[in-house]
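User: Sequence in, structure out. Go.
Assistant: Echoing your sequence, followed by the structure tokens.
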Amino acid sequence: MKTLNKLIWKNRPLGIRIIIILLSINIILQFYSLTSKLQEPAILFGMFVNFPFSIVITLLLLVIPIIILFGIYKQKFWKGILILQGFNFINFLVGAIVILSTPLSILASKMGNSFPDVSPEILAVVEMKIKLLTSIPMFIGVIISLIILIYIYKKREYFLRSN
């Protein structure tokens, strides 16, 4: 059984193995931070969704990589993987754009944080830096989602071979 699993793993293209590893790390990190994320606002297509509805969004964003990982592992429904990954891509992209285009005071209030009373000069200096730091994880998600989208589309014959 162990040699069969090694053989199956080695027969997968390198890109598919990398995607499996990335998705597995993503799922593990999401499970690790799940309890704290359930109380926080979630971002879906740039809209901030507050508790209790954020629970549904958070769980949805956890289930999507699990379904994608299952589809890749079983070599099934590559079109479904593209749809789900496209959803992730658009969600990350719109979320990052909204974060960058929303004034910091409004952004803080939507995220449930109080905004300190600071002078406009200080705010002007730190606003873009804070927004960039906040949106960096989303831009990483955009890049990874786009790479997975392109790779799965180019390797669709990998999914068609198994049928």
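User: And one key feature?
Assistant: The beta strands are 42-44, 47-49.
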